[in-house]
Specification:
The protein is an all-alpha fold. The chain has ten helices and two strands, in the order ββαααααααααα. It has helices spanning 18-26, 35-48, 53-66, 72-76, 80-86, 96-113, 117-123, 145-156, 164-173, 185-189; strands at 2-3, 9-10. β1 and β2 form a beta hairpin. The longest helix is centred in the middle third of the chain and has 18 residues, at 96-113. It is globular, with a radius of gyration of 17 Å.
Length: 192
């Protein structure tokens, strides 16, 4: 936990970077049922693999520009030539497998649309019942049985870069789980 200049306690992972603090305060852990937002976050979490989240957060607008605002229909039509151009874009992580995964994920996402969408699938794996809010960052797991199961289901459906740790981070980011710590002002503002 860290107390910031504004007097608020925040989860220690967000540090002092204003972009990170704003993300923590306004987006992280807020329940999302919007398929497009979920698709964007799943792709960004995959891009983050092996890197820090602040790196991806700083590149988020470049990702939105490069990947047509995460319009899955447009991305699913990307050609090999378009992928090669993306690999030259310094605004994104230029890892071939990660770039290709966004295209493959767009195609898998579109397949899901006929069956209820990404939100319907993701929220099936939300933990049930009331959970104890943790006091310390070290108490938060890297994965859970729910993230294991969701990762397996996403992979079965053709999604890439969806290992259990990535999927748990995704679940935290989009509010499927709320891992704000006990003293965090965001947690205290929420009705438990």
């Amino acid at each position: 936990m860290a107390r910031h200049a504004d007097g608020r306690w925040r989860c220690g992972w967000c540090g002092l970077d204003p972009l990170y603090v704003r993300y923590h305060d306004t987006e992280w852990g807020v329940p999302s049922h919007d398929d497009r937002h979920l698709f964007e976050m799943l792709c960004l979490e995959g891009a983050q693999a092996g890197l820090s989240w602040i790196t991806i957060l700083r590149k988020r607008e470049s990702y939105r520009r490069a990947f047509d605002g995460f319009d899955a229909r447009a991305i699913a039509r990307y050609t090999p030539a378009r992928i090669e151009r993306l690999l030259e874009d310094p605004g994104i992580v230029r890892n071939r497998l990660k770039v290709q995964s966004v295209v493959l994920n767009a195609r898998a996402f579109l397949e899901l649309s006929g069956g209820g969408g990404l939100a319907e699938l993701v929220w099936r794996f939300a933990p049930q019942g009331k959970r104890r809010r943790r006091r310390y960052l070290r108490e938060i797991p890297a994965s859970t049985p729910q993230s294991d199961a969701l990762a397996k289901e996403l992979a079965r459906r053709g999604f890439k870069f969806v290992g259990t740790t990535i999927v748990y981070s995704f679940m935290q980011a989009v509010g499927v789980v709320d891992d704000h710590l006990q003293r965090c002002w965001v947690a205290r503002d929420r009705i438990e």
